User: Fold this.
Amino acid sequence: MSIPKYDEMYRAFLNCLADGHPHDLKEIKSAVANQFRLSPAEREVLLASGKQTVFDNRIGWCRTYLKKAGLLESIARGKYVLTADGKRVLSENPAKIDNLYLQRFDSFRAFFSRSSDNEHPVAAVSSQTPQDTLEAAFHQINSVLEDNLLTAIMGQSPAFFEHLVVKLLTQMGYGGSAEDAGMVIGQTGDEGIDGLIREDKLGFSLIYIQAKRWDRSTSIGRPEIQKFVGALAGQGASKGLFITTAKFTKEAREYANKQHTAKIVLVDGQKLAKLMIEYNLGVSTETTYQVKRIDTDFFSDDWDA
Assistant:
């Protein structure tokens, strides 16, 4: 089951407090996750930032908006109970509890009127959390950047691409410095190996590289991977990286995955662009936004002591 939107959890969150007793957020999160039958893996899916799970983020916004509507309140740090309005909502059992429903509460409308303008009225409150909106925009920006990176790579020579690959690997931590990390071969008669790089600074293990700057619409099939495996065997190699601007077929990936004598890693154009962005190769930071949250520890200190 997919992770519910924050407003899809309103009723489940309120139901967790229906017994009239205070419950902490940890209890509520567990109960809501169980109501939606979320698997452990679904509960652990991270936002793109990698600092919070999607589920935790959405249930946090669910709690915030229910509080802004005046349906629940915190009676102690991290402990919540229903308000009189919250109890009344559950007793009335409306067909749907969503943002449109919450707009009947003055405090909810007031909250959104403070954070919106004439172009974005309260009626336009989305099922996306602000974090969801940021994540979607971030993904869209990076998708365009990935496409631009691959277009730029295709405008360079094959030799540039081979050096780019080794540079990327060094920035990922392989081999030490760019000067002694490895060497790009890329010459006729290279026996199917375009380069190699030390896996560690001392050079105990080598990774053999096949780097192909091929048309992005090209699909690399099993025969090419078989040739690469043969080239590795000829070198007595146990680790190989086939990296390209093109794509791999399903058969090619399946063949690479079932190899036992050598570990084969396939990186297609999309993955290559993502790695370049992650390790700041060929890109620069244009704008940085900091998303901050309240420091609850600061407000829990006993200043009167």
Notes: The longest strand covers residues 206-212. The mean pLDDT is 85.
